[in-house]
Amino acid sequence: MNYLKYSPFLLSISLISCEMEEIPIDAHLSGNIVTQKIELEQDYKNQVFYNLKNNSVVSQNIKTDWDLGFIINDNTDYIILNTSTFMQVAEVNTVGFEDLITINNLEWSWDHPSGIEYGTEISNEAISNNVYIIDRGYLLNGNKRGYKKLMIQEVNNDYYKIRYSNLDNSNDTVVQINKEGQTSFIAYSFDIDDKRSIFPESYEWDLVFTQYTAFFNDTTTPAYLVTGVMTNYLNNVLVALDTINDFEQINLSMINNYNFSNKQDEIGYNWKLYDLDNNLYIINNSLIYIIKDVEGRYFKLQFFDFYNDIGQKGYPQFKIQEL
Q1: Across-strand partners of 238?
Q2: Per-residue confidence (pLDDT) for residue 217, from 0 to 100
Q3: Where are the domains of the chain?
């Protein structure tokens, strides 16, 4: 049963962000057109890491399995929130860690969905002695996950050291997170007070299908939880958008006509729209994504469904071909 309608939008090729030099590509045959269905499930509980070259799922996890991510590549220090649960953070720089803090009237903020260069809300500077209140967002059943206090005690070339507790100072914990492994981020869970294996090795995946927190130009609700696709942007996955050519027309000889973006949310969520009259998602089939993978190959990708065969949402389907 097909629960989707298609919406033919007539747009132009999107010239996205950074200028790009001409790209030397060795001549080769195009790949076969293949399809894939990603199983986020109806409640969008899964985060699914996907490899373009192999058209395969590399790994998946329940989105509530982790809280913070600690970057370990390029000698750069960043700490990210798990935005798939609508985590938010408030900085409190006028109190000590053990002071009791209420959550009333705190000013909440969110990591930028485009990536670390666009803004993360937890400073990696241990000397600041800032205390952060972390709202862990929502469980799969819609209940709150709770709150934590956090302080960054030390950051150096080898590790991060953090201190965190509940708001009433119970479960006061100091932990050292070593910068080791082949992933871009080390994931940490407050539920188990330990690291969790979430992110695959850096060059094993290209896209992750997930919920995440997006920004809107709305002063009442400036951030909102959406369902879409993020890229492995820290490992050179790039995206361009073609809204003129048919899927079959796009080939490798056109690649230098596109401007590519390394924004994490360049594919994002708006390849689908919600039809309020019919109470279902529709696919914008005028959007074709040109993607450079972690190995420098180019692919074209087009979504065609968001439902499975029995009409359950949360199962994005797309066709893909290597150029």
Answers
A1: 292
A2: 80
A3: 34-62+202-322, 67-193
